[in-house]
TrEMBL record:
Assembly and oligomerization: Homodimer.
Protein name: Uncharacterized protein
Taxonomic source organism: Exocentrus adspersus
Family: Belongs to the glutamate-gated ion channel (TC 1.A.10.1) family.
Amino acid sequence: YIDNYVINNHTFPEGFLFGTATSAYQIEGGWDEDGKGENIWDTLTHTTDLIKDHSTGDIACDSYHKWKEDIALLKDLGVNHYRFSLSWSRILPSGFANHINTAGVLYYKNIIAALKEAGIEPIVTIFHWDTPQPIHDAGGWASEFVVDWFADFARICFELYGNDVKYWLTFNEPKQICHEGYGSGVKAPAIHSPGVGEYLCTHNFLKAHARAWHIYDEEFRSKQNGSISLVIDTPWYEPETPEDEEAAERKRQFVFGWYANPIFNGDYPEIMKTRIANRSKLEGFEESRLPVFTDAEIDYIKGTYDFLGLNSYSSYMVKTDPEPEIGDPSWDDDTGVYEYQKEDWIPSASDWVKVTPWGMRKLLAWIKKTYNDPAIIITENGFTDNGTVGTDENRILYYKTYLSNVLDAIIEDKVNVFGYTVWSLLDNMEWMVGYTEKFGLYHVDFSSPNRTRTPKPALDYYKSVIKTHCLVEKCEDEKGRYGIA
Ligand code: GBH
């Protein structure tokens, strides 16, 4: 396959951040150790049979005990940043700020100190989907009180760790929690409320994000000198024909603009406001199912970013669909487009991840144009196997071609991308599909109590890219000189 791709032979800029990412629930285990409280993923995995292989994150990669080994792996890989998340219920067992768990605090203190010592910049996600169960029981992301509860937690995080953290991310992929957690109901907390709950959840998420950003900005920035944003995820949506561009753009706005527009441009995208208002009316609602921000709220949320964290894995083709009939409310019908992936795109072990590197370049250029040229760090990008790794050639192809398109975006399209992060350092608990789809640069043996980590072939390739800043054997620098590698 590789012959079909032209790989950029320039070098990544000096200071470019290369790293890997993980999240607390997916790797730590230690689910009830040292005073940790329960979260909605503990509940879902313990009380339902919704996880594909009936597994849990009770032990996962056992990184609660093996964090030193993980940092040694990062050192060996040569990354200059590591993105991980804080478990809210490990630090605040009840979710509320009434009791801080010293052991939980210490766990992340140690990790951050060890990363610093190894010259690896910690990039810290405050919330990666693991809502404390008591916060959920009190209303969770559907209650506006969550803005205060999250703000309390965020402030504690800045106080505890802010002197050593230069990059904060409030949320990872709020769309997955809101759309899948409160809309379709296929992820924790498994609430089925399409077309209503997901908009409510998003409304509160946006307010909570903005509150945390302002707290950092007003109370901590001048002392701690870090920066703060959030992670928004989207595939690239490519129109099937030029006539399908309106539908493709509509889909981008419903997926990405839903979160990015309020933060980068102000308020929800126009297309969402009009479509949801119209359909709500036809459905018999007196008001739009999309909650309305006051002018003061629009101002308060707008501009609450210092950069953008972007997760993107793959692409979809979009085709104009006839307007969906009026029936039960749903985000899908509010969006109203048809999407698919092509048969000849190279597959991974995840049905939604196909090798479409050109989509990454188009997405980056679209973000630059649509959101006022923000500084961007790609906070996730990765490829799955099903446990059989072999020569790992498609994962190598994936990184090589995606990084090449990132470099094209930087050099040709002048997109301000300052970092790239592989999801993931380790095979881990991949949410609803458990341990069946594996994103790691390291294979993890989940049948061994030791959770042995073994490098996959793609690890060597990524190592060489980090070292040489070059994707091919011989590179040219910005001045046209060869042989940097
Ligand atoms: C991210 O989620 C998460 O941040 C991370 O925790 C996770 O492990 C990683 O990526 C890999 O999944 O084909 O339309 O049904 C990505 C979330 C999961 C969102 C798959 C889209 C299916 C899209 N994506 N989901 S669709």
